[in-house]
Design goal:
It is a single chain. 35% of the residues lie in helices and 23% in strands. It is an alpha/beta fold and 958 residues long. It has five domains: 144 residues, no CATH class; 81 residues, Penicillin-binding protein 1b fold (2-Layer Sandwich), CATH 3.30.2060.10; 201 residues, Rossmann fold, CATH 3.40.50; 152 residues, P-loop containing nucleotide triphosphate hydrolases (Rossmann fold); 143 residues, Transcription-repair-coupling factor, D7 domain (Aspartate Aminotransferase, domain 1), CATH 3.90.1150. The strands form nine sheets. The chain has a nine-stranded mixed sheet, covered by helices on one side. The chain has a seven-stranded parallel sheet with strand order 29-30-28-31-32-27-33, with helices on both faces. Strand 10 and strand 11 form a beta hairpin. It is globular, with a radius of gyration of 32 Å. The protein starts with 6 loop residues before the first helix and ends in a 5-residue tail after the last helix.
Length: 958
């Protein structure tokens, strides 16, 4: 293959220079290539369907430099953002961004008419979170004048109260900052009396009074092109036209070609195009030809449909998955209930929530729905109580103000650069969010979730240094003495070279009163300790930053005790608790959340093995690890067993150095023994689970866990995480007795710990643990009810409660419902994985990521999967527009509105539908139906996905 200059590029350049006036025979992909390779600012005018299609393709790029503008039913201006949800854009916004704008796509009819902005997109809004300084700054930026008289565009300041009149209104608003939250009132300007309190007011700039058109704003600086009937044209003196026979090509067409000339197209299109033997291809064509560029996902991920597993169907309750039934047209999940079976369309896969791999779970009865309804109602009430408690606690924090930190500091920058490891992308993003929190006058309240060894502690250390630079003292709370000691060494190693004094307070502290006095006298900057810290009110009152490590191990009352003594304290919590994607956004309403999901660079997964107990095996493991200058942990929770095996190994391997630790040892002895191991004076350390938390020793890269069947799954995972903290390959050995009948739960735990050995698998481990032992706690709150319905269902339902939502029925879309071909994915579990991913996606961005992953892994996204993605996207768009079903039979498309939800809007729906399809030159008609408002149209020429996306986005009356 060769890259060479192109006839098409030369022709496009001629059109831009004006030496020709038009190019005909131009495909959609070719227009986008032309548009994005122009040197001058350009505007393309075309019909609404073309603009809608552009909006779909370019949604990731639409922003400051690219605008895509179409017409809504009410004649206002709308823009399709990267999630392809319609939002109005004011004409003054175009004017304000004109300098940064380089490319516009505008519907023909909108180019020359005067337009007035819609209120919801005014550049500034005032609500309860608005700050006084922000309001004054924004008012001045928008052209408001501080004056004596309340006229449009004026504002008055009376202490903590601001009165103002917007440019485009005669209403007078009073904004009061006298309380903890900003209050907004509509007032009578004549007598200064309050009429009513309002939640939000939108403020536009002075320009918003004028009626402007896109033509007036753009024609001086932009070259205007028209695209009609596959022809791009512009006004020039030279009326010459060049005709090109451009053909669209798909990925399969391209890979079947040999030794073709091609040019890469930096446009996110699904197809390329060819012109007279020259191929223009998107980057992904080339990147994926004959290779996979990404690791395949873990199809054994927890919760994916597995034959024999127990699931909850949202409507019918507990069921067992029996596998897929595949026909030519459909693939359906077969679900067994106590008294029958249903076949679930793949579109409804999101209705299934994983409960257990246990096949002994009682199943629900299809003919007795009351039992499941009562169970669901009980869970709902418990969730509402939990959510109310969660939101109350964290909303109280939102009402508090404290001093903001100065984080634009050379010392802080130097400290961050001194981090001895390569920062991961998630760490970097998390640190940026923490800095934003610290700059805010409201105290920080952030939870950082991440797997074992993924860098949460470094975030805590940086935050501590930022606090010290701002003359604040720091308290770090840890659940165990060993973890306290480990954190003390970690913090000291990083902070001491920068002049920060770190202290520790736990049961091994020899002079606790001295440590307390040093902190209270501000001689110690950072104090790290166990729960003993919580009983000293003076320490809690004095700290400006409170950090809780392993937050999930503390109760709510304990970890939040600091707020009663220091309401304005900045709060940072670190946890390995799993936060499902379905819950992440909802939890952000209660507290700020950061996820660290990327492992450190060069970190290798720990190789795990399950074996029968054998002294010869243990000796071989010891010798192998020591021979590569490493160290070994040997763990058993029975002190008697530890001492017995310790004695045997000491005698049989006298050339190795051994030591033993357990909880009943004195604090001094315990720490001294740990220090010897850390300094590599001990090669083999026998221990109980006291090493479970916070031990980070880079040379310890093998762990043996004896009687592993007696440990909890999370314990096994935490213990395994004590090794593999460097780039050296680590090993974990799980030993069980030879003549011992293991319990079903014990077998499940061991299977899970071996199965989930990849980096970042803590999420799956924690969910497996919840499945085996029932519900646990989330942020210290008891998840009563979780054990009965499974963690996945519980967290999905909690997300709805936190959003104050009920589960709306999704729109059933049956346009492109061919199953994933077994020739593409032969494994049933793999197909189930992608079905659930696609139909559980909640926005277009997630769907795009799924598609990108498929292309990265398999080299191509087959048309059947593309169709399923389009189905789900249309379903998401239609959900809030009261559309219950979209289906197609041959060339006839049917769209159903729910009568119950649309009865008050029928007078708007019918004329809108008729008008839209008349504009598209499509005949449509309504059917007689008592249950739904149904219309049909016949389509043989246009893309139903683009047409219906445009139709749904233009519905503005819901």
């Amino acid at each position: 293959m060769k890259h060479k200059d192109s006839l098409f590029k030369k022709t496009c350049l001629a059109l831009e220079k004006g030496t020709i006036s038009s190019i005909s025979g131009v495909s959609f992909e070719a227009v986008l290539f032309f548009a994005q390779n122009l040197k001058n600012k350009s505007c393309f005018l075309s019909n609404g369907l073309f603009i809608d299609r552009v909006a779909v393709v370019l949604q990731e790029e639409i922003g400051e430099s690219i605008a895509c503008i179409n017409k809504q039913q009410q004649g206002s201006l709308s823009v399709l953002n990267k999630y392809f949800s319609s939002s109005s854009i004011s004409i003054q916004k175009i004017a304000r961004n004109k300098k940064g704008l380089s490319l516009c796509f505008i519907e023909n009819s909108l180019f020359s008419i005067p337009l007035i902005p819609q209120q919801k997109d005014y550049p500034f809004s005032i609500d309860e979170k608005t700050l006084f300084d922000d309001l004054i700054r924004e008012l001045k930026a928008l052209g408001f004048t501080k004056g004596e008289a309340l006229l449009p565009g004026n504002f008055l300041i009376r202490g903590g109260v601001v009165d103002l009149v917007p440019f485009d209104s005669n209403k007078t608003y009073r904004v009061s900052f006298l309380g903890s939250l900003c209050k907004i009132y509509l007032i009578n300007a004549q007598n200064n009396m309050i009429i009513k309190e309002i939640k939000k007011v939108f403020i536009g700039e002075k320009l918003s009074q004028k009626k402007l058109s896109c033509q007036k704003l753009l024609e001086k600086d932009f070259i205007i092109y028209k695209y009609e009937k596959q022809t791009i044209s512009r006004e020039t003196k030279n009326k010459k036209n060049i005709s090109l026979q451009i053909k669209s090509i798909n990925y399969q067409d391209f890979i079947n070609k040999k030794d073709v000339n091609f040019l890469l197209v930096d446009v996110p299109v699904d197809r390329g195009f060819s012109v007279q033997g020259e191929f223009f291809i998107p980057f992904w064509f080339l990147n994926n030809k004959n290779k996979k560029t990404s690791k395949a996902p873990d199809f054994d991920v927890f919760g994916v449909l597995e034959v024999g597993g127990t699931y909850i169907h949202d409507d019918f309750g507990f069921c067992r998955f029996l596998g897929f039934e595949t026909s030519v047209k459909k693939e359906k999940a077969c679900l067994k209930f106590s008294d029958g079976m249903i076949k679930l369309d793949i579109n409804y896969m999101s209705k299934l929530s994983f409960v257990s791999l246990n096949s002994h779970q009682p199943l629900s009865f299809l003919n007795k729905p009351g039992s499941w309804s009562r169970k669901k109602g009980l869970v709902q009430r418990q969730l509402e109580e939990f959510a109310a408690s969660l939101l109350t606690r964290y909303s109280q924090r939102e009402a508090v103000f404290s001093s903001s930190f100065n984080v634009d500091n050379e010392n802080l920058e130097a400290f961050v650069k001194a981090f001895p490891h390569t920062e991961t992308q998630d760490q970097k993003l998390c640190w940026e969010r923490v800095l934003e929190d610290l700059k805010n006058p409201r105290p920080m309240n952030r939870l950082v979730c991440g797997d074992v060894g993924f860098g949460k502690t470094e975030i805590a250390i940086r935050t501590s240094f930022a606090a010290v630079l701002n003359n604040q003292q720091v308290v770090v709370l840890a659940p165990t003495t060993l973890l306290t000691n480990q954190l003390f060494h970690c913090f000291s190693k990083r902070l001491s070279p920068f002049g920060v004094f770190v202290g520790t307070l736990s049961r091994i502290t020899k002079k606790p009163k001295k440590e307390i006095d040093l902190f209270l006298n501000k001689k110690t900057d950072v104090l790290i300790g166990t729960s003993a810290l919580l009983f000293n009110s003076k320490i809690l009152s004095q700290c400006g930053l409170f950090i809780v490590d392993e937050e999930h191990r503390f109760g709510v009352e304990n970890k939040e005790k600091v707020f009663s003594f220091s309401p304005g304290v900045n709060f940072l919590a670190l946890s390995a608790t799993p936060i499902p994607r379905s819950l992440q956004l909802s939890l952000n309403k209660a507290r700020n959340l950061s996820l660290i999901q990327t492992p450190p660079i060069d970190r290798k997964p720990i190789i795990s093995s399950l074996n029968l107990f054998s002294t010869s095996l243990i000796k071989n493991i010891f010798i192998k690890e020591v021979s590569r200058e490493g160290q070994v942990f040997f763990v058993d929770n029975s002190v008697g067993n530890l001492k017995k095996i310790f004695s045997i190994m000491s005698k049989e391997l006298p050339f190795l150095s051994f030591d033993i630790i357990y909880g009943s040892l004195s604090s001094d002895v315990l720490i001294n023994k740990m220090q010897r191991f850390i300094k590599q004076k001990t090669q083999i350390l026998f221990s109980t689970t006291i090493i479970e938390s916070g031990i980070d020793i880079g040379t310890a890269n093998t762990i043996i866990i004896n009687n592993a069947h007696l440990f909890g799954l999370s314990q096994l995972y935490q213990l395994r995480g004590r090794v593999g903290r460097s780039s050296v390959q680590a090993f974990s050995w799980f030993l069980v007795p030879e003549k011992k009948d293991l319990t079903k739960e014990g077998v499940s735990r061991l299977k899970a710990i071996i199965r989930y050995s990849s980096l970042g698998s803590g999420y799956n481990i924690a969910l497996s643990d919840l499945e085996i032992r029932g519900g646990g706690s989330l942020f210290g709150y008891k998840q009563s009810g979780c054990g009965g319905v499974g963690f996945e269902y519980y967290t999905k339902a909690l997300s709805l409660v936190l959003n104050n939502q009920t589960k709306e029925p999704s729109c059933f879309v049956d346009l492109f419902n061919k199953p994933i071909p077994s020739s593409f994915l032969s494994n049933e579990k793999e197909r189930a994985f992608y079905y659930k991913q696609i139909f559980s996606a909640t926005n277009f961005n997630e769907l795009q990521k799924i598609k990108k992953n498929i292309i990265d892994v398999f080299g191509v996204c087959v048309s059947e999967i593309e169709g399923l993605i389009k189905n789900q996207h249309l379903s998401l768009l239609a959900k809030n527009k009261k559309i219950s079903r979209i289906s197609k039979k041959e060339n006839l498309v049917s769209v159903s509105f729910s009568v119950k939800k649309t009865s008050s809007k029928i007078d708007k729906i019918i004329p809108f539908v008729l008008s839209f399809f008349k504009e598209q030159q499509k005949e449509c008609w309504f059917l007689n139906s008592h249950k739904n408002l149904i219309f049909q149209y016949k389509n043989t020429t246009k893309d139903d996905y683009i047409l219906l996306s445009s139709f749904i986005n233009k519905i503005t009356f819901f």
